[in-house]
Amino acid sequence: MLKKKKLVILTGAGISAESGIQTFRDSDGLWEQHRIEDVATPFAFQKNPQLVLNFYNERRKKVRTAQPNAGHKTLAELEKYFDVTIITQNIDDLHERAGSSHIIHLHGEIFKSRSCNNPSLIYDCPDTINLGDLAEDGSQLRPHIVWFYEDVPQMEAAIGETQRAEILMIIGTSLQVYPAAGLAMYAPYDALKFLVDPHIPEVSHIPNLEIVNANATIGVPELAERLINEYGGDST
Length: 236
Prior knowledge:
By secondary structure, this protein is α/β, with parallel strands linked by helices. It is built from eight helices and eleven strands. The chain has helices at 13-17, 36-39, 42-47, 49-65, 70-77, 94-98, 155-163, 216-231; strands at residues 6-11, 30-31, 34-35, 83-88, 103-105, 108-115, 122-124, 141-145, 167-171, 192-196, 209-212. It has a six-stranded parallel sheet, with helices on both faces. Strands 7-6-8 form a three-stranded antiparallel sheet, covered by helices on one side.
């Protein structure tokens, strides 16, 4: 059996947008008609926790009705041929539902909640979070989301995976939100690097990058077929 090449995939909001999940950069800094500052910072939660909880409760409903698209499904299929790690900036579970098995959620997960006082107290959250819903330490539950101005606890794990990449795929991300936007710089210089996106961001800082100017549902299956034919290991 051939040793599978290490394939690291960084996904952003663009891949989920094709499943109908709105991105926070869709329109003038509004996210589902809310200012980012009002729903996606710890200060917003301190100021108006009910608004923030309501916002994520609605997001949870919308994610539940969304379905994985051809991009998500193709990435899951690549596990037959490569040693795949997906590093996603998305808070939805579409990669999981598509069948991918090794996923690092940089910005948290919409279907989980956590203690306001102890970030390690994390719970499944299939439905809603309400004021008065408490963690076992007695503190209010909040969405298990990494808000702006908060640390990214999975960043070290993501860096470690990226440093091992033989192939790096970047899909549907503006490369504007740090520290995630800097991950590509941790990939080995001689790693194969690909960007799949219909809107090409500034990428001159990423060496040896090949651009696939297409939506994820089109570009990812085409690129995957090429990578399997040229570099895919034994699928048995």
